Every structure is written in structure tokens, then in C-alpha cells.
Amino acid sequence: MGRISRMVFSAVALTLMLGCASLNTGLSGKEKLEAKDWLHAGEVAYKLKNYDEAQYFYELIVKKYPGTYYGKKAKENLGYVSYQKGLIGRTVQKAIEVLDPVVDDPMMAPLQ
Fold it and tell me: Between these two residues, 74 and 101, which has the higher pLDDT value?
């Protein structure tokens, strides 16, 4: 029974290792660093609400490193950028800007 357990464990471990390795297939150290830096730059731009710049970096990664972890993550993040740049995202952002002064108004604070 112990031998079968070890074989199953080995097969599962090998499958996990091969699955993780396939995400970074073909990236040298320099390429990995470049993709990681571009992904970080896109995330910073997104947090600063500079959606055009974020889109630029994400598209750069998707084009140059499509099958890697970074390419997949950038493609996912492009969906968030598209949402923010779309009608719904712009409407939500405008509503937040309009309502923000109301929230900061001391007269609107809850009674204690």
C-alpha cells in the first residue's frame, strides 16, 4: 500500500511541476524581468487611473509573451482596463466623484 501511495504522490507532484513550468516556458532571466517590470508598470498605472498607459503595458506583454504567466495575467488585467474605460466604468467613476464631497461634509456625519 505504501508503494502505491508513493507512486500516486510522485505522479501528482510531477504533474504539478510540469504545469507550473509550462507557465514560464521560454523566458530567460532578462525576459522574465522585463515582463515582470512591464506588468508592475501596468498595475501602477491602473492604480493611478491612467488606463491608457496601463493598457499599453498590458498589450505589450500579451504581444511579446502570450503563453507565459505574465501574458495571461496581462490579458486578465486588460479586461479590468476595458471595464474602466467603458461606459459603465466611467459612469461609476463619475458617480464617485459627484458623491465624494457629500461624504466629506461634516454635516453628513452620523450623530454620536
Answer: 74
